[in-house]
Amino acid sequence: MDSVVSFQDLNLQLGSSGAGSAAAVATIVPKIEPKLEPFDEFALTGLKASPLFSNPSPTRDSDSGSGLGLPAVTEPAGAKRSSHSSEEANVYSEFNRISEMFRATFAEKMQGFGDVDVVEGPDSRAIVPVSDEAQVSSAVISKSIRQRSSELVRVTDLKLEDQRYFRDIVRKARMVYDSIRVLLVLEDEKNQEFGHFRNRADLKAAQLMRMRGLWLNRDKRIVGAIPGLFIGDVFFYRMELCVVGLHGQAQAGIDYLPANHSSNGEPIATSVIVSGGYEDDEDSGDVIIYTGHGGQNKFSKQCVSQKLESGNLAMERSMTYGIEVRVIRGFKYEGSASGKVYVYDGLYRIVDYWCDVGKSGYGVFKYKLVRIENQPEMGSSVLRLAQNLRTRPLVARPTGYISLDMSRNKESVPVFLYNDIDTDQEPAYYDYLVKTIFPSHVQQHAGNGTGCECVDGCGANCFCAMRNGGEFAYDHNGILLRGKPLVFECGPHCRCPPKCRNRVTQRGVRYKFEVFRSRETGWGVRSVDLIQAGSFICEYSGVVLTMEQAQIFKMNGDSLVYPSRFAQRWAEWGDVSQIYPNYVCPTYPSVPPLGFAMDVSKMRNVACYMSHSSSPNVFVQLVLYDHNNVCFPRLMLFAMENIPPLRELSIDYGVADEWTGKLAICN
Asked: Among 71, 343, 385, 497, whose CB has the most other CB atoms within 10 angstroms?
């Protein structure tokens, strides 16, 4: 198992030469001026409106300011209040006394009916008490919303099984976040129809998870790499970084342990976000000249000189103690759900800092960050490579391509075939099959002309929506709201237009995929595009065989896939039971056991080259649209998480073959 090493007391590292600086630092009162990210100006508005991010109400002990780390404000000795203030106090005191008498008397009379009770406590204004269940729920939520730990630790010696364990925790947390956010977006769409104010779904999803204690890495403040997070992981929303514990500040560019939480009274920086928001920043990839925070106006222009305090001081202290920082880059990216992305680029060391005159003529602190060697390639570099591959593949990678479209124009977007390892070209020898071929008797259940009558687009009374349990399976962007045993899409007998929101999978592939040769998995699949969680990927196609036919084909050694063995990962997508305890996994529409196999020995598509994984990033969702035989649905693949470009796609193929003991997959 991994080792969680408590970070050493920083005072022990200070020699005689550092004692003076430590004393000087102790006199500095941190002034919180977070380095705001210009791309998140709407998020800032949302945070102000959200009760989650408002300042907590001071307790009685902190009324004087001491609880907030500020000097206490007291009245001079012997000072007398004015007679006017005294008279006001007497008036309010009498008013409160009469109000309390009326409340108690009224409640006592009402108690005779057995409907109400008196809520105890001098600050109570309620005649009807809160139920015991609500009080317990409130207590649980209050306990869950806890402050971040002040204990610095570093996680080391992670074994392979530990990495998988933590990765699964992160993956599930992100899936919960995406599931809630998608449902909240749908709720916002409904509210807008009635002219209600639109809330930020990404902020609200994070708020709900925090209230339930689902934010990760809150019990320890981790220095260095976060278990379960990989270099290259992509986030569409800033609040996702807080949810997984990669960067704990909702707006500040420098995440650090404050001085009043540190063991020796000095702040320590743990992560930074580089987004080009400061005009003096310089980013060349492995080396970053990072500008400290503070002194900017709302137009991101420097207007005041910076001070060596709070986050700026934390950066200098991390440099002194040799503490590495995590670097997350944020930038605009075409194809992102929010118009921008945040990508984790690994660990950097702060090797130097100095005060300089910035471009606007004001003093700024600059920090030189150098990337630690022997790390995987930066995620931002992979994103830039993917952008070039989409438009100029032979320029970005001159060698290795076997075909620039192995589908031979059968897909709406090309499917690359790439091998820079050996001379194997096997995928080029198969006929490319875009859609599954069903037996003739299945097509007899084509629906006999039944379909919805939604000429101008499907609405609440759509016949196909009723078949789905009274709701649409997708939002307006084609994102699957939650997994179901079966999804009915509008089909050829429906009168709705081709761009209907309930015709997602039948439109075909819209991402550029690449079948590539891998030393670990043989042949694999990766996307050249960034794929958002819940997005449709492609159909798993083949020639459908009855079980009797499958026995004959199996004797010939042909490659068969058994849909009934796929793990039911669809139940995980949209599972918000941790947020809403009353959530029940959908059981409608029901589907009988899938008693057929799929032959992919002669014809196949890109999906057949996806590798098996017990922690997949792709799941199978059964869909019907061109016939009504629920015994023969189509196998549609959706993304379980945000999948960065050039990261391998994987499926959980389920149980092993009973004859060979191996997974029945074609590769």
From this structure: 343
- Is the residue at 32 inside a domain? no
Structure tokens at 143: 């306990």
Q: What is the pLDDT of residues 360-384, one digit of tens each?
A: 888 889 999 999 999 999 999 999 9
Paired tokens of 219: 């019990």
Handedness of CA 71, 72, 75, 81 (dihedral sign): positive
Q: Which helix (H) or strand (E) holds 622?
A: strand 618-624
Taking a C-beta distance cutoff of 8 angstroms, is the pair 407, 609 a contact? no
Tokens of 6: 């408590």
408 in the same domain as 366 = no
pTM of the full predicted structure?
0.77
Q: Which residues, other chains included, contact 370 with Cβ-Cβ below 8 Å and sequence gap of 6+?
A: 286, 287, 348, 349, 351
Classify 173 in phi/psi space as left (phi over 0), alpha (psi -120 to 50) or beta.
alpha
Please give the pLDDT value at position 132.
46
Query: How confident is the prediction for the chain on average, in pLDDT?
Result: 78
Which residues form the domain of 623?
400-651
The Cα 354–Cα 660 span in angstroms is 65
Q: What is the DSSP letter of 34?
A: -
Residue 493 falls inside a structural domain: yes
pLDDT digits (tens, 9 = 90+) for 113-153: 444 444 444 444 344 444 444 444 444 444 456 677 777 88
Cβ within 8 Å of residue 115, ≥6 positions away: 128
How far is the CA of 293 from the CAs of 250, 252, 366, 449, 465, in angstroms?
15, 8, 10, 65, 51
Cα separation, 461 vs 321, whole angstroms: 65
Spatial distance between the Cα atoms of 173 and 445, rounded to a whole number of angstroms? 41
**DSSP string covering 277-331, please?**
-STT-EE-SSEEEEE-S--B-TTS-B-S---S-HHHHHHHHHHHHT--EEEEEEE
pLDDT in tens, 6-51: 655 444 444 444 444 444 444 443 343 444 544 443 344 444 333 3
**Shared domain check, 541 and 593:** yes
